[in-house]
From TrEMBL:
Molecular function via GO: signaling receptor activity
Name of one Pfam family that matches: GDNF
Membrane topology: Lipid-anchor; GPI-anchor
GO cellular component: external side of plasma membrane; receptor complex
Organism: Gambusia affinis
GO BP annotations listed: cell surface receptor protein tyrosine kinase signaling pathway; nervous system development
Protein name: GDNF/GAS1 domain-containing protein
Chain ranges of the GDNF/GAS1 domain: 31-114, 124-218
Subcellular location as annotated: Cell membrane
Keywords per UniProt: Cell membrane, Glycoprotein, GPI-anchor, Lipoprotein, Membrane, Receptor, Signal
Length: 346
């Protein structure tokens, strides 16, 4: 039998080993640290709990969860929670070869058993067609394909040289039928829940679409840069270019600017529509450095739902669809008019 002093000493020695090993493990597991940071932030903790509940509640013996509610809660999480915390968990960096702790925790961020996985894997082109039937998914997939387009000759790996917009577009897909996630492999490998089997003559098109996720240099570099904290320069918004205006046109320019602001204010009061995602998306990411008042004025935070009304939008009349793009057209006309006003009259 171990005497009392010896037993106490043995337990203490185990505690010493435990406390010495834990910091090293925690330091390497950035995803665990990000989860802890989320729990210390009221907003992050609130919306994380809001999606964990529906994403982990079994509905029946055949259904592991209510996927629609899970997806909606996930969209709210990435819409409401500051990127510092939401992206911290989604894009945290992991040591090479770490499969059991950090990588798996990162993969589990969106509760993939509910939000990502399904009984069968559809063909990727079929999944893309399903996505196109829903306004939110179609719009966000188009943003992703545009903002994360790779470019071999680019230093960043992105055609548009903007990591922030790429990550915003990627996270925007989470909570749709095109929800992507990390696959079970080393490194950064992502994919929607689909494959290219049974593609027939469309195999090359399917592979090309799938590789936009699985082998995308722009997306991979953006995630690495965020996780490593080396993306500061890329995340900063570009300073506006100040046009040179002649004194005689200054007053006219000021009056025109006021008119444009009035028009934009009217547009922002037309009501919620998902097209504001295209205009306000970059501003949501740049909340870390941008003016909150300006963002609130032109970028109201609307809850998006994949069901009901928004599905009806896809089948709306041309006149109704035109109103969805009014804000974009006004910005374009305003920009052109400002350029014309700045041209001196001969």
């Amino acid at each position: 039998m171990i005497s009392e002093p010896n037993l106490k000493q043995k337990l203490l020695s185990h505690n010493v080993v435990f406390h010495q090993a834990e910091p090293a493990s925690t330091k390497e597991n950035n995803c665990l640290s990000a989860a802890k940071a989320c729990n210390l932030n009221d907003t992050c903790k609130k919306y994380r709990s809001a999606y964990i509940n529906p994403c982990t509640s079994r509905v029946s013996t055949s259904e592991v969860c209510n996927k629609r509610k899970c997806h909606k809660a996930l969209r709210q999480f990435f819409d409401k929670v500051p990127p510092k915390h939401s992206y911290g968990m989604l894009f945290c960096s992991c040591p090479a070869g770490d499969q059991t702790a950090c990588v798996e925790r990162r993969r589990q961020t969106i509760v993939p058993v509910c939000s990502y996985e399904d009984k069968d894997k559809p063909n990727c082109l079929s999944l893309q067609n399903t996505c196109k039937t829903n306004y939110i998914c179609r719009s966000r997939l188009a943003d992703f394909l545009s903002n994360c387009q790779p470019e071999a000759g680019s230093i960043s790996g992105c055609l548009l040289e903007n990591y922030a917009n790429c990550l915003l577009s990627y996270s925007g897909l989470i909570g749709t039928v095109m929800t992507p996630n990390y696959v079970r492999s080393s490194g950064i490998s992502l994919s929607p829940w689909c494959d290219c089997s049974s593609s027939g003559n469309s195999k090359s098109d399917c592979d090309k679409f799938a590789e936009f996720f699985t082998n995308n240099r722009c997306l991979r570099n953006a995630i690495k840069a965020f996780g490593n904290g080396t993306d500061v320069g890329v995340w900063q918004p570009q300073p506006p270019i100040q046009p040179t205006v002649e004194p005689s046109t200054t007053r006219r320019g000021k009056a025109w600017t006021n008119s444009v602001v009035d028009v934009l204010t009217d547009v922002s009061q037309l009501g919620a529509n998902s097209d504001s995602y295209h205009i306000c998306g970059p501003l949501q990411v740049q909340n870390l450095v941008s003016n909150q008042t300006a963002k609130a004025a032109f970028c109201p935070n609307h809850q998006l739902d994949e069901s009901g009304t928004l599905n009806a939008i896809a089948g709306s009349s041309p006149s109704e669809l035109n109103s969805l793009h009014l804000s974009t057209l006004v910005l374009s006309v305003a920009s052109t008019a400002l350029e014309l006003e700045a041209i001196p009259k001969g």
